[in-house]
C-alpha cells in the first residue's frame, strides 16, 4: 500500500476525523559575521574569558532572533540547561466522554482440599488516556490476601491462600472508567517510549517467535514498504484477510503462533489471531504486544463484539498494538474483524465488514478493559510460568487449574455501567 493511499483511507474512519497536518520545512539561519567587538571599559577585568554577547546584543547584531517559540531547537544551549534536539512533544488531550463500569468477580472453590492458592488478574495499574482504575474492594474467607505487582510492571494480580480450600470463597469488586481510544495518523507528537520496554516487545516468547518462518512471512507481506505505519497496516490487512476465527475453542485460544506458522494454518481465537499479528511485527523489527483484557459492555459496532447482558464470565478478549516513533502505541484488532465474519455471517466483500476493517486499525472501542501486557508470567508462589494471564488460576494438592475447566472451581464475572 502506498503511503498516500493509506493516509486517505485512514482519514475515512467513522469514529474520528483526522486533522490535516501541513508539512512545514524550516531552515535555521546561521550567522556569517562575528559579533562586534566589545568596547574597551575602564572597569577592571573580572577574569572571565570568551565572554558571550547578550541576547539583546545578538539581536542588534543580526537584526533577527534565531530561535522563537515556534522553532525552539537550540544549537548550543546555555550552560546549566538541559535543552536537546528532540522534536517538540505536545501534551495529549484527555477524552471528554468517559464510561464507568463495576466489575465483580466471584470465586467459589469446590473439590479442592489442603493448601490452596488463587490468582486473579487485575485491570491496568497505570492510568492511560483510555482507561483508569478507580479502586478495588473485596470480601471472603481467605487466610491471606494481597495485591501484587510483578517486578517488570507488566501486570498486577490479586493473590489469596487457604490452608484448606474446600469451602473457600472470594469476591472482588473493581471500578474502571474507559474512553474510546483513537490513533490519529496526522499527529506525530508522542513522547518516545522507554528503550527497555521496546526491546522487550521485540523479543520472542514461549509462543510468539520472532525469526524463521515469522520473519519470512513478514518480509513477504511488507515487501518494499519502508514506512513503519504502512508496514503495520500491511500486516494488519494480511492477518484480517487470511486468519480464520474458531468460536469452538476454549477461552481466547492457546496463543501458540509457532504452531500456526509450522502448519501454515492461521487463526483460532483472539490470542491466536492477534498474537500472529504481534509475532510478524516483531519479526521485521516493529515493537508489538498483545493486550489481555475483558469485554465489559455492549458494542456500537456489532452485537457480537460486546456483551449482550451483565454476564462477562466468558468475555475475555485479547487485543494488540504496535509502536512507531512519534506516534506511540497504535491500537489494532484484526481478530474482531474475523470474529464479525464468523459470528455475524458477513462475507469478505460486505461493505459493513470493509468499514469495520478500516475502523479497527487505530481504534479500540472501549467496551473492553485491559488487564495486562505480560507474557511468560511467573506468578508469586507458582513454580511454572504461564504464557499469559487472563483467567483465574488455582493451585492445590489436586494440581493446577484455570477457569477453562468449570469442574475445577466456580467463578463468575459481572459488569454493569454505573454513574459516579
Written account of the structure:
The chain has nine helices and 17 strands. It is of the alpha+beta class. The chain folds into two domains: 99-178 and 381-418, Immunoglobulin-like; 182-365, C8orf32 fold (Roll), CATH 3.10.620. The strands form five sheets. A five-stranded antiparallel β-sheet has the order 4-5-2-15-16, with no helix packed on it. Strands 3-6-1-17 form a four-stranded antiparallel β-sheet, with no helix packed on it. Helix 4 crosses helix 7 and helix 5 packs antiparallel against helix 7 (270-283). It is globular and about 60 Å long. Mean pLDDT is 82; it is low at 10-75 and 80-86.
Q: What key phrases describe this protein's structure?
A:
five-stranded antiparallel beta sheet; 420 residues; alpha+beta; 9 helices; 2 domains; Immunoglobulin-like; four-stranded antiparallel beta sheet; single chain
What proportion of the residues form beta strands (DSSP E)? 15-25%
Separation of termini?
45 Å
Q: Strand order of the main beta sheet, please?
A: 4-5-2-15-16
Rounded mean pLDDT score: 82
What name does the CATH topology of the largest domain carry? C8orf32 fold
What is the 3D form?
globular
Say what oligomer this is: single chain
Query: Could you describe the largest sheet, including whether it forms a barrel?
Result: 5 strands, antiparallel
Compose a concise summary of this entry.
The chain has helices at residues 3-10, 55-62, 195-200, 213-222, 228-242, 257-263, 270-283, 334-344, 351-359, and strands at residues 99-109, 116-121, 131-140, 144-149, 156-162, 169-178, 181-182, 244-245, 267-268, 288-295, 316-324, 328-332, 363-364, 368-372, 393-396, 399-402, 409-418. With 420 residues, the chain is α+β, with helices and mostly antiparallel strands.
Amino acid at each position: 500500500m502506498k503511503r498516500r493511499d493509506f493516509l486517505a483511507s485512514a482519514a475515512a474512519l467513522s469514529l474520528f476525523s483526522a486533522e490535516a497536518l501541513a508539512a512545514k520545512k524550516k531552515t535555521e539561519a546561521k550567522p556569517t559575521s562575528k559579533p562586534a567587538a566589545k568596547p574597551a571599559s575602564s572597569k577592571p577585568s573580572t577574569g572571565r574569558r570568551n565572554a558571550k554577547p547578550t541576547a539583546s546584543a545578538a539581536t542588534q547584531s543580526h537584526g533577527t532572533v534565531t530561535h522563537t517559540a515556534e522553532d525552539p531547537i537550540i544549537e548550543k544551549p546555555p550552560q546549566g540547561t538541559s535543552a536537546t534536539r528532540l522534536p517538540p512533544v505536545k501534551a495529549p488531550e484527555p477524552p471528554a466522554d468517559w464510561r464507568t463500569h463495576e466489575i465483580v468477580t466471584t470465586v467459589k472453590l469446590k473439590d479442592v482440599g489442603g493448601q490452596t492458592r488463587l490468582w486473579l488478574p487485575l485491570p491496568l495499574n497505570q492510568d492511560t488516556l483510555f482507561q483508569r482504575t478507580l479502586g478495588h474492594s473485596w470480601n471472603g474467607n481467605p487466610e491471606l490476601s494481597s495485591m501484587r505487582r510483578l517486578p517488570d510492571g507488566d501486570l498486577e494480580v490479586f493473590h489469596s491462600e487457604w490452608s484448606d480450600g474446600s469451602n473457600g470463597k472470594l469476591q472482588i469488586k473493581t471500578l474502571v472508567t474507559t474512553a474510546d481510544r483513537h490513533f490519529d495518523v496526522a499527529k506525530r507528537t508522542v513522547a518516545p517510549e522507554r528503550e527497555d520496554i521496546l526491546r522487550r516487545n521485540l523479543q520472542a516468547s514461549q509462543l510468539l517467535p520472532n525469526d524463521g518462518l515469522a520473519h519470512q512471512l513478514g518480509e513477504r507481506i511488507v515487501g518494499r514498504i519502508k514506512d513503519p505505519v504502512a508496514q503495520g497496516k500491511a500486516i494488519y490487512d494480511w492477518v484480517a484477510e487470511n486468519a480464520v476465527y474458531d468460536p469452538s475453542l476454549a477461552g481466547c485460544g492457546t496463543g501458540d503462533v509457532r504452531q500456526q506458522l509450522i502448519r501454515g494454518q492461521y487463526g483460532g481465537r483472539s490470542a491466536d489471531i492477534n498474537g500472529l499479528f504481534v509475532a510478524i511485527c516483531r519479526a521485521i523489527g516493529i515493537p508489538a504486544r498483545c493486550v489481555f483484557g475483558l469485554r465489559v459492555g455492549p458494542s456500537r459496532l456489532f452485537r457480537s463484539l460486546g456483551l449482550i447482558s451483565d454476564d462477562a464470565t466468558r468475555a475475555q478478549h485479547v487485543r494488540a498494538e504496535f509502536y512507531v516513533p512519534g506516534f506511540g502505541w497504535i491500537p489494532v484488532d484484526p481478530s474482531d474483524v474475523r470474529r464479525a465474519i464468523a459470528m455475524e455471517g458477513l462475507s469478505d466483500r460486505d461493505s459493513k465488514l470493509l468499514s469495520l476493517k478500516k475502523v479497527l486499525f487505530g481504534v479500540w472501542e472501549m467496551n473492553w478493559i485491559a488487564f495486562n501486557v505480560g507474557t511468560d508470567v511467573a506468578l508469586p508462589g507458582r513454580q511454572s510460568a504461564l504464557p499469559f494471564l487472563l483467567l483465574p488460576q488455582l493451585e492445590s494438592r489436586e494440581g493446577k487449574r484455570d477457569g477453562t475447566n468449570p469442574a475445577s472451581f466456580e467463578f463468575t464475572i459481572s459488569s454493569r455501567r454505573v454513574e459516579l
